[in-house]
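Hey, resending since the last one bounced:
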Amino acid sequence: MSSPRTPTDDDIALAEGLFGAIQLFKSVAMRAAQACELGSLERTGLLFRLKAGPCRAGWLAQHAKLSPSAITETVEALERDGFVRREQDPLDRRAVRVALTADGRRHLQRFEHAAAVALAERLAPLTPSQRQRINQAFSDLREVIGTTDFTTSSHADITLRATARGHKEAQSAR
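The C-alpha cells again:
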C-alpha cells in the first residue's frame, strides 16, 4: 500500500479556488431561494432530491443529514406551502412518501432560472477565452470526479444557454 501523497502548493491553490467558487455558488443560490419564496437552501435541497420522484421521509433525512424530527418539521412546512404532498407508498400501504407538487416543481424551476441568471450576471465580464478555459476545466473535473451531478438541472429543456438569451425566451422554451 502506498503512502498518501502530500498536496503541493498548486493542489492547495486549486482547492482554495474551488472553495471560493463554492462560496459564490452558495451565495447566489441562497439569494435565489429567498427570491423564489423557497426560503432556505435546506428546503431547496429537499425539493431537488424530490425532482426524480417521490421518496420516503427517512431517505430524505438520511441524504439531507437531518434528524427524523427535523425532516418531519421541514416536510410539514413544505406541505403547508404547497410544494410537496404526502402519498401512500404503493409498495407498502403502511408507509408514506413525499412527492413534489406541480407548484413545488414550478418554484424549483424559478429558483434554477434565478440562480442561473444571477450567476451569468456575475460571470458576464469573462472573455470568450476565459469561458472556454473554465468550460474545459469543468470537463476535466467531471472526468476526474466521475459524475455530471454538479452540472445537471432539474429540467432538461432549460439550460444556462437558454437563460442567457433572456427570461422571455427561456419561458417559451418550457
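Residues 150-174 have pLDDT under 50 and may be disordered.

Sorry for the duplicate.
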